[in-house]
């Protein structure tokens, strides 16, 4: 179950990828079709709104998803991510707007006629059928010849490594194996698009992490476009080529995991993904830099906004690991504040220090624990300096 | 095994005596030699022989079986369809009213059900006989089927049906290939319930039965009015035996299913 275990095994179907297209050199070496204005999206949401009675689950939302992408919809429960997925599967129809798959409006197409398959959160395996028959179920509906079905089912069993359990019923295998059966079943028909609804939420943490790598591996091997719904930000960051952060039926930011983490476009995204310090203040613009006055008697924070900001109220957003902690005032960094250690969260590999400023603001800074715990460099009530570079944080206009 | 306290032992004895002494009396007297039901004159199985030669009873038994078979079949199909629509049909207009009306016949006095059916059959000029009893029994027993089936439908994961649609089933195929096999145990127990209800119904059947068709309960009841005959005792004993065998079989098969489930769980644990 380690990542990379599949390498060198058999032949895998590669779908919807004509040879000519494959041979064409990509504009860059990295996979980033969303940066290519020529690229045609596989899925296009155009001003899609979905209302249930008074409740607006999805609010005038537009987004493009490209072939071979691993696209994650991330957000708290009730943010509309599951509704988006169910609209792609055909279980819900948009109240207004259109959803295009391969350039065709799919709103009138019922779920059983769409080249879209879904892996359900509960796995939704058929309890009265064996693992083999579960995987063969969709292929039989297509009335394929028996030997073709058999070959495909065996290939799927191999892909997810559950050959041993082919003749068992779903209640005779473990949760992790059920998850594999569900994945194999949804991939068996070689859909253009595979939807994964919180696919790993029922697994324990260790198995979940292993399975994330395996999912990426399978996605790469089959060349299928994956759309995953999750509320687990780590999972989204690990598996996805792009992450869409949602809230209240709207997309807040759609970007690569790195961009989402390093350049969040709003305090909401910054706060949702990972740990963060958000400091509010008044900005004055000084060329490329901005000076943020944030507390009486404290030096202004010097920040570098990605987009020019107007003077006025701003949020300065900085990750704890970008802040260095020291007992002496650093000389090489212009941003330095003085405070005392209020709390220490010891996480083993690193510690997070909560440092209180004289005005009561608490700033978190993390440091790797390079030494054993007995000799941690700082303890409660110690006066310390926190410092960061001009470009370490993000300046967001309010 | 723990010994029962004297209090528990007494209440157990009293309770079971209360339940089973009447039946025991019937069974014992079915082997009575004498024609007088209350006077014991020696062991004999002759009333069983008499019973088998009694054409009227045999005819009534045959009618009862036919009615039971067809009415329970009809009730199962209609009750399952009704349950499916009420549980899966979403929130259509008037759904609460319909589900209330579905269960109302459960609490309706049988006399009223019987009378209203009789009036209906007379007004549409349907000759009273097996057909009318079948229709009447199907009418009241389909509610029971519907209750049993809908409780199963409510408890099973909707996404299993969605998965079937997602994998290319039409809605009807999804029902036939996925929903029906999963709810089959509930459908079967609903069917058995409908069959039982039909076999022992007296009130409704006596309203809608005609001279051409008499069910066993009606026959027994009318012959009691002429005095209890030992033949009735023999018949009752046979019925008690059949019911006992049925109950034991059912509980054994439930137990076997439980054992199988536990074995499956063990297999799942070992394979993890």
Automatic annotation (TrEMBL), chain A:
Belongs to the ABC transporter superfamily. Spermidine/putrescine importer (TC 3.A.1.11.1) family. The keyword Translocase applies. SUPFAM superfamilies: MOP-like, P-loop containing nucleoside triphosphate hydrolases. Transmembrane segments: none annotated. Residues 43-273 form the ABC transporter domain. One of its GO terms (biological process) is putrescine transport. It comes from the Bacteria. It catalyses: ATP + H2O + polyamine-[polyamine-binding protein]Side 1 = ADP + phosphate + polyamineSide 2 + [polyamine-binding protein]Side 1. Part of the ABC transporter complex PotABCD involved in spermidine/putrescine import. Responsible for energy coupling to the transport system. Its EC number is 7.6.2.11. It comes from Yoonia litorea. This is Spermidine/putrescine import ATP-binding protein PotA. The keyword Transport applies. Keywords: ATP-binding, Cell inner membrane, Cell membrane, Membrane, Nucleotide-binding, Translocase, Transport. The complex is composed of two ATP-binding proteins (PotA), two transmembrane proteins (PotB and PotC) and a solute-binding protein (PotD). GO terms for molecular function: ABC-type polyamine transporter activity; ATP binding; ATP hydrolysis activity. It is an enzyme of class 7 (translocase). GO terms for cellular component: ATP-binding cassette (ABC) transporter complex.
Automatic annotation (TrEMBL), chain B:
It comes from the Bacteria. It is a multi-pass membrane protein. One of its GO terms (biological process) is transmembrane transport. This is Putrescine transport system permease protein. Belongs to the binding-protein-dependent transport system permease family. CysTW subfamily. The keyword GTP-binding does not apply. PANTHER family: PUTRESCINE TRANSPORT SYSTEM PERMEASE PROTEIN POTI. Coiled coil: none annotated. GO terms for cellular component: plasma membrane. It is found in: Cell membrane. The chain crosses the membrane at residues 12-31, 60-86, 106-124, 130-154, 174-194, 232-253. Residues 61-250 form the ABC transmembrane type-1 domain. InterPro entries: Bact_Polyamine_Transport, MetI-like, MetI-like_sf. Keywords: Cell membrane, Membrane, Transmembrane, Transmembrane helix, Transport. SUPFAM superfamilies: MetI-like (SSF161098). The keyword Isomerase does not apply.
């Amino acid at each position: 179950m380690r990542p990379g275990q599949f390498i060198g095994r058999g032949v895998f179907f590669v779908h919807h990828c004509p040879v000519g297209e494959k041979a064409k050199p990509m504009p860059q070496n990295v996979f980033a079709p969303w940066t290519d204005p020529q690229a045609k999206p596989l899925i296009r949401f155009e001003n899609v709104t979905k209302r249930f009675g008074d409740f607006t689950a999805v609010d005038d939302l537009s987004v493009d998803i490209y072939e071979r992408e691993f696209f994650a919809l991330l957000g708290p429960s009730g943010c509309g991510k599951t509704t988006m997925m169910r609209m792609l599967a055909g279980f819900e129809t948009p109240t207004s707007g259109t959803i295009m798959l391969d350039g065709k409006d799919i709103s009138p197409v019922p779920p059983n006629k769409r080249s879209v398959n879904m892996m359900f959160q509960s796995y939704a395996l058929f309890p009265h059928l064996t693992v083999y028959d579960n995987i063969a179920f969709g292929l039989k509906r297509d009335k394929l010849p028996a030997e073709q079905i058999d070959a495909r089912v065996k290939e799927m069993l191999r892909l997810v490594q559950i050959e041993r359990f082919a003749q068992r019923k779903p209640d005779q295998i473990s949760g992790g194996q059920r998850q594999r059966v569900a994945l194999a079943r949804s991939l068996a028909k070689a859909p253009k698009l595979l939807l994964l609804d919180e696919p790993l939420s029922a697994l324990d943490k260790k198995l979940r992490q292993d399975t994330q790598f395996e999912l990426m591996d399978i996605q790469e091997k089959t060349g299928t476009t994956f759309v995953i719904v999750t509320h687990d930000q780590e999972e989204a960051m690990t598996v996805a080529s792009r992450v869409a952060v949602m809230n209240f039926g709207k997309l807040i930011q759609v970007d690569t995991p790195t961009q989402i983490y390093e350049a969040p476009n709003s305090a909401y995204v910054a706060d949702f993904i990972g740990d963060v310090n958000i400091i509010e203040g008044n900005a004055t613009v000084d060329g490329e830099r901005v000076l943020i006055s944030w507390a009486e008697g404290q030096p202004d924070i010097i920040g570098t906004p990605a987009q020019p900001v107007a003077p006025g109220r701003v949020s300065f957003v900085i990750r704890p690991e970008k802040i260095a902690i020291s007992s002496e005032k650093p000389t090489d960094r212009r941003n330095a504040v003085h405070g005392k250690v209020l709390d220490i969260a010891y996480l083993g590999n690193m510690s997070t220090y909560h440092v209180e400023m004289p005005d009561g603001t608490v700033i978190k800074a993390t440091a790797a624990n390079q030494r054993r715990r007995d000799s941690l460099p700082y303890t409660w009530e110690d006066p310390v300096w926190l410092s960061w570079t001009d470009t370490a944080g993000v300046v967001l206009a309010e | 095994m723990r010994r029962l306290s004297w209090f528990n032992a007494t209440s157990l004895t009293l309770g079971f005596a209360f339940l089973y002494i009447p039946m025991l009396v019937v069974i014992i007297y079915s082997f009575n030699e004498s024609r007088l039901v209350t006077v014991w004159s020696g062991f004999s199985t002759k009333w069983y022989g008499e019973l088998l030669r009694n054409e009227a009873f045999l005819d009534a038994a045959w009618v009862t079986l036919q009615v039971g078979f067809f009415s329970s079949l009809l009730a199962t199909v209609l009750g399952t369809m009704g349950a499916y629509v009420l549980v899966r049909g979403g929130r259509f207009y008037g759904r609460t009213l319909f589900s209330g009306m579905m269960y109302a016949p459960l609490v309706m006095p049988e006399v009223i059900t019987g009378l209203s059916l009789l009036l209906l059959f007379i007004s549409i000029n349907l000759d009273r006989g097996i057909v009318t009893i079948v229709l009447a029994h199907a009418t009241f027993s389909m509610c029971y089927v519907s209750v049993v089936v809908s409780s199963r439908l409510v408890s099973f994961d909707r996404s299993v049906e969605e998965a079937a649609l997602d994998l290319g089933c039409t809605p009807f195929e999804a029902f036939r290939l996925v929903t029906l096999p999963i709810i089959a145990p509930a459908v079967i127990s609903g069917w058995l319930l409908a069959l039982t209800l039909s076999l022992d119904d007296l009130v409704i059947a006596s309203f809608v039965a005609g001279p051409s068709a008499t069910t066993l309960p009606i026959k027994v009841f009318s012959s009691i009015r002429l005095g209890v005959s030992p033949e009735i005792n023999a018949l009752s004993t046979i019925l008690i035996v059949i019911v006992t065998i049925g109950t034991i079989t059912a509980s054994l098969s439930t137990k076997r299913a439980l054992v199988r489930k536990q074995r499956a769980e063990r297999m799942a644990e070992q394979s993890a």
